Amino acid sequence: MLTKRIIPCLDVKDGKVVKGVKFQNLRDVGEPPRLAAVYEQQGADEITFLDISASVEARKTMLRIVEETAKSLFVPLTVGGGIRTVDDMRAALNAGADKVSMNSAAIADPDIITRCSESFGSQCVVVAIDAKLVSAGRWEVFTHGGTRSAGIDAVEWAKRAEELGAGEILLTSMDTDGVEEGYDIPLTSAVTDEVDIPVVASGGCGSVEHIYDMFAQTGASAALAASIFHYGEHTVSEVKEYLRDRGVPVR
Amino acid sequence: MPLEVTVADYGVGNLHSIRKALEICGAHVSVVSDMERLLDAECLVFPGVGAFDSAMRRIQPWKEEIRGMLDSGTPALGICIGAQIMFDSSEEGDGPGMGFMPGRVVRLAARQIPHMGWDLVETGDPAMEGIRDRHFYYAHSYHGSPDDPSTAVGSTEYEGVRIPVLFRKSSFYGSQFHPEKSSSSGLAFLRNFISFAEGCL
Questions:
Q1: For every one of its 201 residues, what pLDDT tens digit does chain B have, with 9 covering 90 and above?
Q2: Residue B160, number of CB atoms within 10 A of its CB
Q3: A43 domain residue, yes or no
Protein backbone atom coordinates (compact mmCIF):
# COMPACT_ATOMS: atom_id res chain seq x y z
CA MET A 1 0.00 0.00 0.00
CA LEU A 2 1.29 3.43 -0.93
CA THR A 3 2.26 5.21 2.28
CA LYS A 4 1.67 8.85 3.19
CA ARG A 5 4.84 10.90 2.94
CA ILE A 6 6.35 13.22 5.54
CA ILE A 7 8.53 15.90 3.98
CA PRO A 8 10.68 18.29 6.03
CA CYS A 9 11.05 21.54 4.12
CA LEU A 10 14.17 23.66 4.30
CA ASP A 11 13.84 27.28 3.24
CA VAL A 12 17.32 28.18 2.06
CA LYS A 13 18.67 31.72 1.79
CA ASP A 14 22.27 32.38 0.75
CA GLY A 15 23.21 28.78 1.55
CA LYS A 16 21.62 28.62 5.02
CA VAL A 17 18.34 27.17 6.25
CA VAL A 18 15.80 29.66 7.50
CA LYS A 19 12.14 29.37 8.34
CA GLY A 20 9.92 32.22 7.34
CA VAL A 21 7.12 33.15 9.65
CA LYS A 22 4.59 34.41 7.13
CA PHE A 23 7.69 34.97 5.00
CA GLN A 24 9.10 37.56 7.41
CA ASN A 25 11.38 37.54 10.47
CA LEU A 26 13.76 34.94 9.07
CA ARG A 27 15.78 33.01 11.64
CA ASP A 28 18.88 30.94 10.90
CA VAL A 29 18.56 27.22 11.74
CA GLY A 30 21.49 25.40 10.13
CA GLU A 31 23.36 23.88 7.21
CA PRO A 32 21.15 22.27 4.52
CA PRO A 33 23.17 19.11 3.69
CA ARG A 34 23.61 18.23 7.37
CA LEU A 35 19.96 18.85 8.23
CA ALA A 36 18.81 16.81 5.22
CA ALA A 37 20.93 13.83 6.33
CA VAL A 38 19.58 14.06 9.89
CA TYR A 39 16.01 14.01 8.58
CA GLU A 40 16.74 10.97 6.41
CA GLN A 41 18.04 9.15 9.52
CA GLN A 42 14.82 10.06 11.34
CA GLY A 43 12.75 8.50 8.55
CA ALA A 44 11.87 11.47 6.32
CA ASP A 45 10.38 10.22 3.05
CA GLU A 46 11.67 13.10 1.03
CA ILE A 47 13.36 16.48 1.50
CA THR A 48 12.35 19.77 -0.07
CA PHE A 49 14.64 22.79 -0.49
CA LEU A 50 13.01 26.10 -1.31
CA ASP A 51 15.52 28.71 -2.42
CA ILE A 52 14.27 32.06 -1.21
CA SER A 53 17.37 33.99 -2.29
CA ALA A 54 16.98 36.66 -4.90
CA SER A 55 20.40 37.13 -6.49
CA VAL A 56 21.93 35.19 -9.35
CA GLU A 57 25.04 34.58 -7.21
CA ALA A 58 22.92 32.96 -4.49
CA ARG A 59 21.35 30.66 -7.10
CA LYS A 60 24.79 29.30 -7.95
CA THR A 61 25.41 28.73 -4.24
CA MET A 62 22.13 26.80 -4.17
CA LEU A 63 23.23 24.47 -6.99
CA ARG A 64 26.44 23.71 -5.09
CA ILE A 65 24.42 22.94 -1.96
CA VAL A 66 22.11 20.64 -3.93
CA GLU A 67 25.14 18.80 -5.30
CA GLU A 68 26.69 18.42 -1.86
CA THR A 69 23.37 17.25 -0.39
CA ALA A 70 22.70 14.69 -3.13
CA LYS A 71 26.01 12.98 -2.41
CA SER A 72 24.93 11.96 1.06
CA LEU A 73 21.15 11.80 0.71
CA PHE A 74 19.37 8.60 -0.30
CA VAL A 75 15.79 9.83 -0.28
CA PRO A 76 14.30 12.08 -2.99
CA LEU A 77 15.21 15.75 -3.02
CA THR A 78 12.86 18.39 -4.43
CA VAL A 79 14.26 21.81 -5.23
CA GLY A 80 12.23 24.95 -5.87
CA GLY A 81 12.56 28.69 -6.01
CA GLY A 82 13.85 30.76 -8.89
CA ILE A 83 13.31 28.07 -11.55
CA ARG A 84 12.33 30.04 -14.67
CA THR A 85 13.40 28.02 -17.71
CA VAL A 86 13.89 24.48 -18.98
CA ASP A 87 17.63 25.08 -18.60
CA ASP A 88 17.20 26.12 -14.94
CA MET A 89 15.38 22.87 -14.38
CA ARG A 90 18.04 20.84 -16.16
CA ALA A 91 20.75 22.51 -14.04
CA ALA A 92 18.90 21.65 -10.82
CA LEU A 93 18.36 18.01 -11.91
CA ASN A 94 21.97 17.63 -12.98
CA ALA A 95 23.12 19.11 -9.67
CA GLY A 96 21.24 16.39 -7.80
CA ALA A 97 17.55 17.28 -7.52
CA ASP A 98 15.08 14.48 -8.22
CA LYS A 99 12.13 16.82 -8.65
CA VAL A 100 11.95 20.53 -9.37
CA SER A 101 9.11 22.82 -8.41
CA MET A 102 8.03 25.86 -10.39
CA ASN A 103 5.77 28.65 -9.25
CA SER A 104 5.72 32.10 -10.91
CA ALA A 105 7.41 30.89 -14.10
CA ALA A 106 4.62 28.38 -14.70
CA ILE A 107 1.99 31.07 -14.20
CA ALA A 108 3.75 33.44 -16.60
CA ASP A 109 4.23 30.71 -19.23
CA PRO A 110 2.17 27.56 -18.54
CA ASP A 111 3.69 25.76 -21.54
CA ILE A 112 6.95 25.47 -19.62
CA ILE A 113 5.25 22.68 -17.63
CA THR A 114 4.77 20.69 -20.82
CA ARG A 115 8.27 21.37 -22.10
CA CYS A 116 9.82 20.25 -18.82
CA SER A 117 7.71 17.13 -18.50
CA GLU A 118 8.49 16.11 -22.09
CA SER A 119 12.21 16.66 -21.52
CA PHE A 120 12.60 15.12 -18.08
CA GLY A 121 9.44 13.10 -17.39
CA SER A 122 6.38 14.37 -15.52
CA GLN A 123 7.51 12.62 -12.32
CA CYS A 124 10.12 15.34 -11.78
CA VAL A 125 7.88 18.33 -12.52
CA VAL A 126 6.20 19.84 -9.47
CA VAL A 127 3.96 22.89 -9.74
CA ALA A 128 3.96 24.94 -6.54
CA ILE A 129 0.78 26.87 -5.83
CA ASP A 130 0.52 29.57 -3.14
CA ALA A 131 -3.19 30.11 -2.54
CA LYS A 132 -5.18 32.58 -0.48
CA LEU A 133 -8.89 32.67 0.30
CA VAL A 134 -10.49 35.66 -1.45
CA SER A 135 -14.19 34.85 -0.93
CA ALA A 136 -16.25 31.92 0.36
CA GLY A 137 -14.99 28.77 -1.37
CA ARG A 138 -12.70 30.65 -3.74
CA TRP A 139 -8.91 30.67 -3.46
CA GLU A 140 -6.68 32.68 -5.76
CA VAL A 141 -3.09 32.00 -6.74
CA PHE A 142 -0.61 34.47 -5.23
CA THR A 143 2.98 35.16 -6.26
CA HIS A 144 5.96 37.12 -4.95
CA GLY A 145 5.88 35.66 -1.45
CA GLY A 146 2.13 35.99 -1.19
CA THR A 147 1.94 39.70 -1.95
CA ARG A 148 0.49 39.67 -5.47
CA SER A 149 -2.63 37.93 -6.78
CA ALA A 150 -2.23 36.30 -10.17
CA GLY A 151 -6.00 36.66 -10.57
CA ILE A 152 -6.56 32.96 -11.21
CA ASP A 153 -8.55 30.38 -9.31
CA ALA A 154 -6.22 28.01 -7.42
CA VAL A 155 -8.30 24.86 -8.01
CA GLU A 156 -8.63 25.61 -11.74
CA TRP A 157 -4.89 26.26 -11.94
CA ALA A 158 -4.10 22.93 -10.27
CA LYS A 159 -6.29 21.13 -12.85
CA ARG A 160 -4.61 23.00 -15.70
CA ALA A 161 -1.13 22.19 -14.36
CA GLU A 162 -2.09 18.50 -14.30
CA GLU A 163 -3.32 18.65 -17.91
CA LEU A 164 -0.11 20.36 -18.98
CA GLY A 165 2.02 17.55 -17.54
CA ALA A 166 2.81 18.32 -13.91
CA GLY A 167 3.53 15.20 -11.86
CA GLU A 168 2.73 16.70 -8.47
CA ILE A 169 1.23 19.80 -6.83
CA LEU A 170 2.89 21.49 -3.87
CA LEU A 171 -0.01 23.40 -2.34
CA THR A 172 0.71 26.12 0.22
CA SER A 173 -2.01 28.04 1.98
CA MET A 174 -1.02 31.67 2.46
CA ASP A 175 -3.72 31.92 5.12
CA THR A 176 -2.29 29.21 7.38
CA ASP A 177 1.43 29.38 6.53
CA GLY A 178 3.59 30.33 9.51
CA VAL A 179 0.62 30.45 11.90
CA GLU A 180 1.06 26.85 13.14
CA GLU A 181 -2.64 26.31 13.79
CA GLY A 182 -3.11 23.49 11.30
CA TYR A 183 -3.17 22.85 7.57
CA ASP A 184 -5.77 24.50 5.39
CA ILE A 185 -8.14 21.55 5.11
CA PRO A 186 -10.87 23.19 2.96
CA LEU A 187 -8.28 24.36 0.39
CA THR A 188 -6.42 21.02 0.37
CA SER A 189 -9.66 19.05 -0.08
CA ALA A 190 -10.86 21.39 -2.82
CA VAL A 191 -7.69 20.64 -4.79
CA THR A 192 -7.36 16.90 -4.05
CA ASP A 193 -11.02 16.40 -5.03
CA GLU A 194 -10.30 17.85 -8.46
CA VAL A 195 -6.89 16.51 -9.49
CA ASP A 196 -5.56 12.96 -9.81
CA ILE A 197 -1.84 13.74 -9.42
CA PRO A 198 -0.37 13.65 -5.89
CA VAL A 199 -0.82 16.78 -3.78
CA VAL A 200 1.65 17.81 -1.07
CA ALA A 201 -0.09 19.91 1.61
CA SER A 202 1.91 22.78 3.06
CA GLY A 203 1.44 25.67 5.45
CA GLY A 204 0.23 25.71 9.03
CA CYS A 205 1.74 22.62 10.62
CA GLY A 206 2.41 23.21 14.32
CA SER A 207 1.83 19.76 15.82
CA VAL A 208 1.53 16.06 15.03
CA GLU A 209 -2.26 16.34 15.41
CA HIS A 210 -2.30 18.82 12.52
CA ILE A 211 -0.63 16.26 10.26
CA TYR A 212 -3.06 13.54 11.32
CA ASP A 213 -6.10 15.81 10.84
CA MET A 214 -4.93 16.77 7.37
CA PHE A 215 -4.44 13.15 6.25
CA ALA A 216 -7.71 12.06 7.86
CA GLN A 217 -9.74 14.79 6.14
CA THR A 218 -8.16 15.32 2.73
CA GLY A 219 -6.83 13.28 -0.18
CA ALA A 220 -3.28 14.70 0.11
CA SER A 221 -0.41 12.27 -0.48
CA ALA A 222 2.16 14.07 1.63
CA ALA A 223 2.59 16.58 4.43
CA LEU A 224 5.27 19.22 4.22
CA ALA A 225 6.43 20.80 7.47
CA ALA A 226 9.31 22.92 8.69
CA SER A 227 9.29 24.48 12.14
CA ILE A 228 8.08 21.43 14.11
CA PHE A 229 11.16 19.61 12.85
CA HIS A 230 13.71 22.42 12.75
CA TYR A 231 13.08 23.55 16.31
CA GLY A 232 13.24 19.99 17.63
CA GLU A 233 9.62 19.87 18.80
CA HIS A 234 9.24 16.47 17.14
CA THR A 235 11.37 14.07 15.17
CA VAL A 236 10.05 12.62 11.93
CA SER A 237 9.96 9.18 13.58
CA GLU A 238 7.73 10.48 16.40
CA VAL A 239 5.33 11.91 13.84
CA LYS A 240 5.23 8.58 12.00
CA GLU A 241 4.64 6.59 15.16
CA TYR A 242 1.73 8.87 16.03
CA LEU A 243 0.23 8.44 12.55
CA ARG A 244 0.79 4.66 12.48
CA ASP A 245 -1.00 4.27 15.82
CA ARG A 246 -4.02 6.02 14.31
CA GLY A 247 -4.16 3.91 11.16
CA VAL A 248 -2.44 6.22 8.68
CA PRO A 249 -0.15 4.12 6.42
CA VAL A 250 3.45 5.31 6.80
CA ARG A 251 6.83 3.80 6.10
CA MET B 1 39.34 -5.87 -5.99
CA PRO B 2 36.10 -3.87 -5.93
CA LEU B 3 33.50 -4.52 -8.62
CA GLU B 4 33.88 -2.12 -11.58
CA VAL B 5 30.44 -0.67 -12.31
CA THR B 6 29.79 1.45 -15.38
CA VAL B 7 26.76 3.77 -15.18
CA ALA B 8 25.20 5.02 -18.44
CA ASP B 9 24.68 8.79 -18.48
CA TYR B 10 21.88 9.64 -20.96
CA GLY B 11 22.61 13.35 -20.56
CA VAL B 12 20.00 14.39 -18.00
CA GLY B 13 19.15 13.88 -14.37
CA ASN B 14 20.62 13.23 -10.98
CA LEU B 15 23.38 10.62 -11.18
CA HIS B 16 25.11 11.73 -7.98
CA SER B 17 22.90 9.56 -5.79
CA ILE B 18 23.31 6.33 -7.76
CA ARG B 19 27.07 6.84 -8.05
CA LYS B 20 27.46 7.56 -4.35
CA ALA B 21 25.10 4.73 -3.34
CA LEU B 22 27.07 2.16 -5.39
CA GLU B 23 30.34 3.48 -3.96
CA ILE B 24 29.06 3.19 -0.38
CA CYS B 25 28.10 -0.40 -1.20
CA GLY B 26 31.68 -1.14 -2.19
CA ALA B 27 31.77 -0.73 -5.99
CA HIS B 28 34.19 1.30 -8.05
CA VAL B 29 32.00 3.48 -10.30
CA SER B 30 32.51 5.12 -13.69
CA VAL B 31 29.75 7.31 -15.14
CA VAL B 32 30.05 7.44 -18.93
CA SER B 33 28.25 9.68 -21.42
CA ASP B 34 30.03 8.06 -24.36
CA MET B 35 27.91 4.91 -24.66
CA GLU B 36 30.65 3.08 -26.54
CA ARG B 37 32.45 2.85 -23.19
CA LEU B 38 29.67 0.58 -21.92
CA LEU B 39 30.95 -2.13 -24.23
CA ASP B 40 33.95 -3.13 -22.15
CA ALA B 41 32.18 -2.84 -18.78
CA GLU B 42 32.41 -5.51 -16.10
CA CYS B 43 28.95 -4.61 -14.74
CA LEU B 44 26.37 -2.22 -16.22
CA VAL B 45 23.90 0.12 -14.53
CA PHE B 46 21.16 1.87 -16.50
CA PRO B 47 19.90 4.62 -14.18
CA GLY B 48 16.33 5.80 -13.72
CA VAL B 49 16.42 9.31 -15.11
CA GLY B 50 14.80 10.96 -18.13
CA ALA B 51 12.25 9.53 -20.55
CA PHE B 52 12.11 6.34 -22.67
CA ASP B 53 12.95 7.85 -26.07
CA SER B 54 15.69 10.18 -24.81
CA ALA B 55 17.46 7.31 -23.04
CA MET B 56 17.09 4.95 -26.02
CA ARG B 57 18.34 7.58 -28.46
CA ARG B 58 21.70 7.63 -26.69
CA ILE B 59 22.00 3.85 -26.58
CA GLN B 60 20.63 3.12 -30.07
CA PRO B 61 24.00 3.09 -31.94
CA TRP B 62 25.32 0.32 -29.66
CA LYS B 63 22.05 -1.48 -29.06
CA GLU B 64 23.11 -4.81 -30.65
CA GLU B 65 26.46 -4.92 -28.83
CA ILE B 66 24.86 -4.12 -25.45
CA ARG B 67 22.14 -6.73 -26.02
CA GLY B 68 24.88 -9.20 -26.81
CA MET B 69 26.57 -8.43 -23.49
CA LEU B 70 23.28 -8.92 -21.60
CA ASP B 71 22.54 -12.16 -23.47
CA SER B 72 25.99 -13.53 -22.66
CA GLY B 73 25.58 -12.88 -18.93
CA THR B 74 27.25 -9.52 -18.16
CA PRO B 75 25.69 -8.52 -14.82
CA ALA B 76 23.47 -5.46 -15.15
CA LEU B 77 20.90 -3.42 -13.26
CA GLY B 78 18.24 -1.23 -14.85
CA ILE B 79 16.39 1.23 -12.64
CA CYS B 80 12.93 2.60 -13.60
CA ILE B 81 13.44 3.95 -17.15
CA GLY B 82 16.69 1.96 -17.21
CA ALA B 83 14.63 -1.21 -16.73
CA GLN B 84 11.82 -0.12 -19.07
CA ILE B 85 14.18 0.36 -22.04
CA MET B 86 15.01 -3.37 -21.87
CA PHE B 87 11.54 -4.21 -23.24
CA ASP B 88 10.50 -4.27 -26.92
CA SER B 89 8.57 -1.00 -26.82
CA SER B 90 6.78 1.49 -24.57
CA GLU B 91 3.47 3.32 -24.62
CA GLU B 92 5.50 6.34 -23.46
CA GLY B 93 7.81 6.46 -26.45
CA ASP B 94 7.68 6.16 -30.24
CA GLY B 95 10.87 4.21 -30.85
CA PRO B 96 11.75 0.61 -30.05
CA GLY B 97 13.50 -0.46 -26.85
CA MET B 98 16.41 -2.85 -26.43
CA GLY B 99 14.24 -5.92 -26.96
CA PHE B 100 16.15 -7.84 -24.29
CA MET B 101 13.01 -8.53 -22.25
CA PRO B 102 10.16 -9.66 -24.55
CA GLY B 103 7.12 -7.53 -23.71
CA ARG B 104 5.85 -3.98 -23.57
CA VAL B 105 5.94 -1.04 -21.21
CA VAL B 106 2.38 0.03 -20.44
CA ARG B 107 0.75 2.96 -18.67
CA LEU B 108 -0.42 2.29 -15.11
CA ALA B 109 -4.09 1.40 -14.88
CA ALA B 110 -4.78 3.68 -11.91
CA ARG B 111 -6.54 6.90 -10.99
CA GLN B 112 -3.54 8.55 -9.37
CA ILE B 113 -0.64 8.74 -11.82
CA PRO B 114 2.30 8.96 -11.23
CA HIS B 115 2.55 6.22 -8.62
CA MET B 116 4.75 8.35 -6.39
CA GLY B 117 6.09 7.59 -2.95
CA TRP B 118 7.08 4.65 -0.75
CA ASP B 119 5.42 1.34 -1.47
CA LEU B 120 6.18 -2.34 -0.92
CA VAL B 121 8.15 -4.78 -3.03
CA GLU B 122 6.78 -8.29 -2.52
CA THR B 123 9.26 -10.93 -3.58
CA GLY B 124 11.02 -14.09 -2.56
CA ASP B 125 13.99 -13.26 -4.77
CA PRO B 126 17.45 -13.38 -3.14
CA ALA B 127 17.99 -9.74 -4.23
CA MET B 128 15.89 -8.76 -1.19
CA GLU B 129 17.52 -11.18 1.24
CA GLY B 130 18.10 -9.71 4.68
CA ILE B 131 15.99 -6.58 4.02
CA ARG B 132 13.34 -6.20 6.71
CA ASP B 133 11.62 -2.98 5.62
CA ARG B 134 10.46 -3.69 2.07
CA HIS B 135 9.24 -0.15 1.35
CA PHE B 136 10.99 1.43 -1.60
CA TYR B 137 10.60 4.74 -3.40
CA TYR B 138 8.64 4.82 -6.67
CA ALA B 139 8.02 7.66 -9.13
CA HIS B 140 6.57 6.30 -12.38
CA SER B 141 3.61 6.41 -14.74
CA TYR B 142 4.50 3.27 -16.74
CA HIS B 143 5.69 -0.24 -15.91
CA GLY B 144 7.13 -3.20 -17.77
CA SER B 145 4.78 -6.02 -18.71
CA PRO B 146 6.88 -9.05 -19.69
CA ASP B 147 5.58 -11.76 -22.04
CA ASP B 148 7.30 -14.36 -19.86
CA PRO B 149 5.74 -14.06 -16.40
CA SER B 150 8.66 -15.92 -14.80
CA THR B 151 10.87 -12.86 -15.46
CA ALA B 152 8.70 -10.76 -13.10
CA VAL B 153 10.15 -11.80 -9.74
CA GLY B 154 8.62 -9.09 -7.54
CA SER B 155 5.41 -7.08 -7.47
CA THR B 156 3.41 -4.50 -5.60
CA GLU B 157 -0.30 -3.73 -5.39
CA TYR B 158 -1.36 -0.24 -6.43
CA GLU B 159 -5.02 0.82 -6.34
CA GLY B 160 -6.06 -2.83 -6.20
CA VAL B 161 -4.01 -3.90 -9.23
CA ARG B 162 -0.90 -6.04 -8.94
CA ILE B 163 2.00 -4.66 -10.98
CA PRO B 164 5.41 -6.23 -11.61
CA VAL B 165 8.22 -4.12 -10.11
CA LEU B 166 11.25 -6.42 -10.01
CA PHE B 167 12.49 -8.22 -13.12
CA ARG B 168 15.17 -10.78 -13.63
CA LYS B 169 16.52 -12.41 -16.75
CA SER B 170 19.91 -14.07 -17.04
CA SER B 171 22.30 -11.76 -15.12
CA PHE B 172 20.06 -8.70 -15.50
CA TYR B 173 17.94 -7.21 -12.72
CA GLY B 174 15.37 -4.50 -13.41
CA SER B 175 13.72 -2.48 -10.63
CA GLN B 176 10.72 -0.20 -11.09
CA PHE B 177 11.57 1.41 -7.73
CA HIS B 178 14.63 3.57 -7.08
CA PRO B 179 17.08 1.82 -4.73
CA GLU B 180 19.32 4.91 -4.72
CA LYS B 181 16.37 6.89 -3.27
CA SER B 182 15.18 4.22 -0.85
CA SER B 183 17.41 4.99 2.12
CA SER B 184 18.88 2.01 4.03
CA SER B 185 16.61 -0.58 2.34
CA GLY B 186 17.75 0.67 -1.07
CA LEU B 187 21.42 0.50 -0.11
CA ALA B 188 20.91 -3.06 1.16
CA PHE B 189 19.34 -4.00 -2.19
CA LEU B 190 22.33 -2.51 -4.05
CA ARG B 191 24.72 -4.40 -1.77
CA ASN B 192 22.89 -7.63 -2.65
CA PHE B 193 23.07 -6.76 -6.35
CA ILE B 194 26.82 -6.12 -6.12
CA SER B 195 27.34 -9.53 -4.45
CA PHE B 196 25.24 -11.11 -7.19
CA ALA B 197 27.25 -9.32 -9.90
CA GLU B 198 30.56 -10.41 -8.33
CA GLY B 199 29.29 -13.97 -8.39
CA CYS B 200 28.64 -13.68 -12.14
CA LEU B 201 32.23 -12.82 -12.99
A1: 899 999 999 887 789 999 999 999 999 999 999 999 999 999 999 999 888 888 999 999 999 999 999 999 999 999 999 999 999 999 998 889 999 999 999 999 999 999 999 999 999 999 999 999 999 999 999 999 999 999 999 999 999 999 999 999 999 999 999 999 999 999 999 999 999 999 999
A2: 7
A3: yes
Q: Which sequence positions of A are flagged as catalytic?
A: 11, 130
CA separation for the pair A105, A87 (Å, rounded): 13
Characterize B124-143 residue by residue with b for buried, 16 or more Cβ atoms within 10 angstroms of its Cβ, and e for exposed. Answer: eeebbeebeebbbbbbbbbb
8 A C-beta contact, residue B192 and residue B173: no
Specify if A250 maps to a domain: no
Distance between CA atoms of B194 and B43, rounded to whole angstroms?
9
d(CA B10, CA B164): 25
CB A83, CB A101: distance < 8 Å: yes
Whole-complex ipTM: 0.94
CATH code, A160: 3.20.20.70
Q: How far is B10 from chain A (nearest CA, A)?
A: 11
Cα distance between residue A43 and residue B139, in whole Å: 18
- Length of chain B (residues): 201
- A-B interface: how many C-beta pairs under 8 angstroms? 110
The domains found in chain B, sorted by start residue, are 4-200 (3.40.50.880)
Nearest C-alpha of chain B: how many angstroms from A24? 32
- Cβ of B182 within 8 Å of Cβ of A221? The answer is no
Mark yes or no for CB contact A2/B158 under 8 Å: yes
